[in-house]
From TrEMBL:
Keywords: Endoplasmic reticulum, Glycoprotein, GPI-anchor biosynthesis, Membrane, Transferase, Transmembrane, Transmembrane helix. This is GPI ethanolamine phosphate transferase 1. The keyword GTP-binding does not apply. Pfam families: Phosphodiest, PigN. The keyword Membrane applies. Pathway: Glycolipid biosynthesis; glycosylphosphatidylinositol-anchor biosynthesis.
Length: 936
């Protein structure tokens, strides 16, 4: 296989292994064909008002301020005198879309569906809005269209403000919420003059939805501890009070309006959300009005909760009822008398209801029927596509048991035993939800085995390629001991072909998705290729034993394996990156260079120890520190000037074009630093950055990475140009010490190249004439051999250094939480108006830039040390897959949602890194060897 074939094969296999996680853990929970269920009791409310304060944390809402006064005085009075309250627990990812889907549709949207669409439904699902007679909604254009486009008919009306209102640099974010409250007021005023609208408003099953984005926007821009965030809570509280008074007056205080106030997610202290920290998953829930119970006093404990929130919030005297976020949907459905959303997995929180036990029993009975209907459809789907003899039904809820349980609950209600009926309904719901999860994960073990075999088969095949083509044992084995020479290949092909046909037939008769064919047939192909080269690997093992290489090979492999395990653990504890960097620093002492090139070794040690500081610092995003960003820009500018001067001084043959471009690139860094200064000053006074600086930022982002293609392709010139090219856009996206981190990373990589250069016994003059273009050393008549060499033990260390540095480049400034939820301040140099796709693309570029720096340096190390490029890539893939297999086994679907989400995120990130590295190695080939100049 050629180099490009290795890249393509590696990307394809890893894409299959990567995508498998979505079929194993992220399959859509939605099923269709269920009959809607509605409570038989008379609905207590004719209309319901849902307030969603986007990004509102539970603690910031419930706790008192420094003066002992409530931040939301009206809603605090509601809690204490006329309503029910508690904490709504969200799930990861804590983003606006899945949060609103859980609140209004009652189910937790899978991650793959979230990726398919942000502002509208990628799949059809039912919701409270869809089941209502009419829904009127006001708020953000990012949320409201999602439910309007998913509704049947045109009974969901949306009123959105323009998208450019969502400006993170705006001086007053509360205007977003004030716009909503004013729009609601205008709506009811217009009804006085519109007979058609007035007639519609007198009917039942009405929903009014107010999406309030100001708190979320203030949290992103000013952080949840800011005065602006707290003041926005007061604005929302005052607006809610006015809406309640307005509706009471409009409907003549008929007592038929129910109110629910909650949030879609919380927010971290550094103004982000998306992960599973309690500050993101704990949101407030307050309900009052028709059908909701009055406030209930307690003995001072507020309920049986392991936390101390009630005392912290001075609410220990009132009963607290916590719910899962999806439980809000059936609560709203029951209050307003519409069918429960057919895809809902929420459980009606009867402790929020103020009606009779009969009404509660009827409500939970309908809730049980609705969830049981989903279970029946899901069970039928799995049974129909499974071979009858192998079908394993959920043991706790057979078809006969379903009928008996529902009949028993109906009898209990008819006999007036409402408390027993409520408990029995809860049991049915709990069992049906377990059954849904059972069938949702029915194929998980089978798919897990297939993916594991795929990993092992690919690793075995890669090992075969390495041994056969890049070790001294390969050619002799292929000549004398090939499997084909023994006549074994036909038999082997027949065996694996038979296995493949049997697997395909089993998948076909079960009507399984086409992706299952990829997961199951890929291992068959890979294991066949591994078996084909088994003689080569066996001969290599015998050769190692014969030549007494067992101990050196075993020690090197052991150290690499331990290093990879430390790298795996660094995903959980990023401080371990510092441990690894310290170990790498003292590696220099064990090399011959400690005696011959002490200065180079000390530079390597100093740079490694300096970079070891960054994983010990708080993750980026906790706060902005623009003076540090400016410092990184100034240091980068000065270091760039020094390196250019040193290059000119040592290598007088640099052409004029390269000299000019290097000077321009240093100037671009200075311009980027000035842009950061201007932007930070404007943001400080809550105004957007000038259009000119934003346009200049985009030009730098797009043009700067291309400038190296105009420079000379000698290693020293091209690497310096690449470092300068990546530093400028990285500074533009920095908000604290990231710029210093990249600068330190570049120093480590430069020192690494110097170490490898001296280990190859090249002097400074020889190193300067190494060219990227030919992948060989272009020396004078004293030059060394230019033919590719076989792999040796030192290459294992080089590949491990690369993988460790790639991981450090990823997690050196953050962790899983900071990767999942970024600070919008990182994109202020480019835009301030909310645009998730553009912001995400910029942040992805920021993440990939350090990757590209490390990969380009690996390319330089490969050229200097003459490692065959193909062998290098195969070793990178082999070691990376050891990590990938680790994370696959560490994926869990039990425990807290933070633990579940983190384990899955680790696997996704690791596989993404492997795929990106393979692609970036191809890109680094272009950036280092490519040139648009006619003369290299």
């Amino acid at each position: 296989m050629k180099v490009w074939q290795v890249i393509v094969a590696g990307v394809v296999v890893h894409l299959i292994l990567f995508y498998s996680i979505f079929d194993i853990y992220f399959t859509s929970p939605l099923v269709h064909g269920m009959t809607p269920y509605t409570s038989r009791s008379v609905p207590p409310a004719k209309r319901l008002v849902l307030f969603v304060a986007d990004g509102l944390r539970a603690d910031k809402f419930f706790e008192l301020d420094e003066g002992g006064r409530p931040r939301a005085p009206y809603l605090r009075k509601v809690i204490e005198e006329q309503g029910a309250w508690g904490v709504s627990h969200t799930r990861v990812p804590t983003e606006s879309r899945p949060g609103h889907v859980a609140l209004i549709a009652g189910f937790y949207e899978d991650v793959s569906a979230v990726a398919k669409g942000w502002k509208e439904n990628p799949v059809e699902f039912d919701s409270v809005f869809n089941e209502s007679r009419n829904t009127w909604s006001w708020g953000s254009p990012d949320i409201l269209p999602m439910f309007a486009k998913g509704a049947t008919g045109d009974h969901v009306t949306i009123n959105c403000y323009p998208a450019h209102f969502e400006d993170f640099a705006g001086s007053d974010m509360t205007q977003l919420d004030l716009w909503v409250f004013k729009a609601v007021k205008r709506f009811f005023e217009s009804a006085e003059k519109n007979a058609t609208l007035m007639n519609a408003l007198q009917k039942d099953k009405l929903v009014f939805f107010l999406h309030l984005l100001g708190i979320d926007t203030n949290g992103h821009s000013n952080k949840p501890h800011s005065e602006e965030y707290v003041m926005n809570i007061k604005v929302v509280d005052a607006g809610v009070q006015k809406v309640v008074q307005m509706l009471d007056n409009f409907f003549n205080e008929d007592g038929k309006t129910a109110y629910v106030m909650t949030s879609d997610h919380g927010m971290t202290n550094w103004g982000s959300h998306g992960a599973g920290h309690p500050s993101e998953t704990l949101t407030p829930l307050v309900a009052w009005g028709a059908g909701v119970r009055q406030s209930l006093p307690t003995d001072g404990s507020c309920g049986q909760f392991p936390d101390n929130f009630c005392n912290d919030w001075r609410l220990q005297h009132l009963k607290r009822v916590d719910v899962s976020q999806a439980d809000v949907a059936p609560l709203m459905s029951f209050l307003v008398g519409v069918p429960f959303p057919v895809n809902s997995v929420g459980v009606l929180p009867v402790n929020y209801l103020g009606g009779s036990d009969f009404e509660k029993a009827e409500g939970l009975f309908a809730n049980a029927g609705q969830i049981l209907a989903q279970y029946q459809v899901k069970m039928t789907q799995v049974q129909e596509r499974t071979i009858s003899v192998s079908f394993r039904p959920f043991p706790d809820l057979s078809a006969s048991a379903q009928v008996d349980l529902m009949r028993n609950i109906r009898n209990l209600i008819n006999n007036g035993r409402y408390s027993d009926a409520i408990n029995e309904s809860k049991f049915v719901i709990d069992t049906a939800l377990k059954g849904l999860r059972y069938y949702q994960t029915y194929d998980r073990f089978f798919l897990g085995i297939s993916v594991t075999l795929g990993f092992l088969g690919w690793m075995g095949y890669v090992l075969h390629l390495i041994v056969a083509d890049h070790t001294i044992v390969g050619p002799s084995t292929l000549q004398g001991k090939s499997l084909g020479a023994q006549g074994g290949i036909p038999v082997m092909y027949h065996v694996f072909a038979t296995i493949g046909v049997l697997v395909a037939l089993l998948l076909y008769v079960q009507s399984l998705p086409w992706t299952y064919y990829l997961y199951c047939l890929t291992p068959v192909l890979l294991w066949m290729k591994f078996a084909q080269g088994w003689n080569t690997i066996y001969a290599a093992l015998k050769g190692v034993i014969k030549e007494a290489y067992v101990m050196p090979m075993a020690l090197s492999t052991l150290f690499c394996f331990l290093g990879l395990e430390i790298t795996v653990m660094s995903f959980f504890y990023r401080e371990l990156l510092s441990v690894g960097l310290v170990g790498m620093a003292f590696w220099a002492i064990s090399t011959p260079l400690w005696n011959t090139h002490r200065t180079t070794c000390l530079c390597w040690m100093t740079s490694c120890l300096l970079m070891a500081v960054f994983p010990l610092l708080p993750v980026v995003g906790g706060s902005t520190n623009y003076p540090v960003v400016l410092l990184s820009g100034v240091l980068s500018f000065l270091l760039g000037i020094y390196m250019i001067w040193r290059l000119w001084d040592q290598n007088g043959s640099i052409d004029t074009v390269s000299k000019t471009l290097l000077c321009i690139q240093v100037a671009v860094i200075a311009i980027a630093t000035i842009i950061v200064k201007v932007t930070s000053d404007r943001i400080a006074v809550k105004t957007a950055s000038p259009f000119f600086t934003q346009a200049l930022s985009w030009i730098i982002l797009c043009v700067s990475p291309l400038l190296p293609l105009l420079t000379d392709i000698s290693v020293d010139v091209r690497l310096l140009s690449l470092g300068l090219a990546f530093m400028a856009p990285y500074i533009l996206t920095s908000i604290t010490y990231e710029g210093l981190f990249l600068l330190s990373l570049v120093c480590v990589l430069y020192s690494w190249l110097q170490m490898e250069t001296h280990l190859e016994h090249l002097d400074s003059r020889q190193a300067r004439v190494v060219s990227f273009r030919s992948s060989r050393l272009e020396l004078d008549k004293k030059g060394i051999e230019q033919t590719p060499r076989h792999l040796h033990i030192g290459d294992l260390r080089r590949v491990f250094f690369f993988i460790f540095l790639i991981t450090t480049a990823f997690f050196g400034t953050g962790n899983i939480a900071s990767i999942n939820s970024f600070d919008p301040a990182s994109v202020y140099c480019f835009l301030t108006v909310f645009n998730p796709f553009v912001m995400g693309a910029i942040m992805m570029t920021k993440v990939l830039l350090p990757f590209l720096v490390v990969t380009c340096m690996l390319r330089a190390v490969q050229v200097v040390t003459r490692i065959p490029l193909r062998a290098l890539m195969l070793l990178v893939m082999l070691m990376s897959d050891v990590m990938g297999l680790n994370f696959f086994f560490l994926v869990r679907d039990y425990g807290s949602w933070l633990e579940i989400g983190t384990s899955i995120s680790h696997y996704v990130i690791c596989m993404s890194m492997i795929i990106f590295v393979m692609v970036l190695m191809g890109l680094s080939q272009l950036l280092t060897s490519g040139s648009v100049r006619r003369k290299a």
